Amino acid sequence: MTDTKKTAVIKVGGDVLLDKAEREGLAANIKDLTAEGWSVVLLHGGGPQVNALQEKHGLTPNKVAGRRITSEADLVVVKQAIAGEVNVNLTATLIQAGLPAFGCHGASGHLIRASKRPPVIVTGAGDKPIDFGEVGDVTGINAELLQGLLDLGQIPVIATLGVSEGGRIFNINADTTVVQIARALKADLLLLTTGVGAVFRDLKQPESRIAQVSRQQANKLIAEGIIQGGMIPKVEEAMKLLSEGVNSIAIVSGRNPGAFLSVANGTGESGTRIVD
Ligand code: X2W
């Protein structure tokens, strides 16, 4: 099949999936992209769903520097929430919208290879190395298999789990993993979906949305505190891709009709686009 189709890789956070309108908006936006000939890969998390299931089982959620400290008991819950609940529901939502969604997880066909994250000293979390337990760092992506699914016209919907060569499963952070997938596929576009849906100079003023920034300007916005909090590592990590052939990265909400196509085409009507 043709390899001239453009590829979009989309990160969907667990928070986005809690709301029916968000899920349906996401499906409509993906439909717009595929109708314009884009190939689409989704990677999703499920942080809030893991928290809820942990609490139900009497476990206490504990995140350090954005990563969950994951015991063996926690990993059972992570698999249930992310590869079970969230993946099945998201795949079903896309199928209901008439899309050829292919639900899978990082261990399916060794899609996401990972190894155990070594204990590390984390700034602000004491002077002893922190062992994150069953948390992995991504070591490789099976891009051939993903491309094969895309060539078959499928939309891979991947639950963020990693697997070692020998089949050990790891909990992996979705934000860093999506960057690796975009890199491995040489994607044209990386979409980071968030509830807020863009970078605003002032969150209370919708008209202060920043439609497009260069990499240099984005660094300035980080320094000025306009891009802040959990968005900083996402944007910093993603921006590395701009020098590696990924044309643009966008922060966008699936809730807004037409948002994905708008950022894909650079019309400036929705989201925030970061370009080289
Ligand atoms: C994440 C995986 C889920 C995720 C976690 O356990 O929450 C680690 O922290 P969101 O919804 O995209 O935040 N893994 C190691 O990233 O979900």
Automatic annotation (TrEMBL):
It catalyses: N-acetyl-L-glutamate + ATP = N-acetyl-L-glutamyl 5-phosphate + ADP. Its main location: cytoplasm. It is found in: Cytoplasm. Pathway: Amino-acid biosynthesis; L-arginine biosynthesis; N(2)-acetyl-L-ornithine from L-glutamate: step 2/4. The keyword Transmembrane does not apply. One of its GO terms (molecular function) is ATP binding. The record marks K11, K234 as: Transition state stabilizer. InterPro entries: AceGlu_kinase-like_sf, AcgluKinase_fam, ArgB, Asp/Glu/Uridylate_kinase, Glu/AcGlu_kinase. Its EC number is 2.7.2.8. The keyword Amino-acid biosynthesis applies. One of its GO terms (biological process) is L-arginine biosynthetic process via ornithine. Residues 6-253 form the Aspartate/glutamate/uridylate kinase domain. It is an enzyme of class 2 (transferase). Keywords: Amino-acid biosynthesis, Arginine biosynthesis, ATP-binding, Cytoplasm, Kinase, Nucleotide-binding, Transferase. Belongs to the acetylglutamate kinase family. ArgB subfamily. HAMAP family: ArgB. Catalyzes the ATP-dependent phosphorylation of N-acetyl-L-glutamate. This is Acetylglutamate kinase. It comes from Aliikangiella marina.
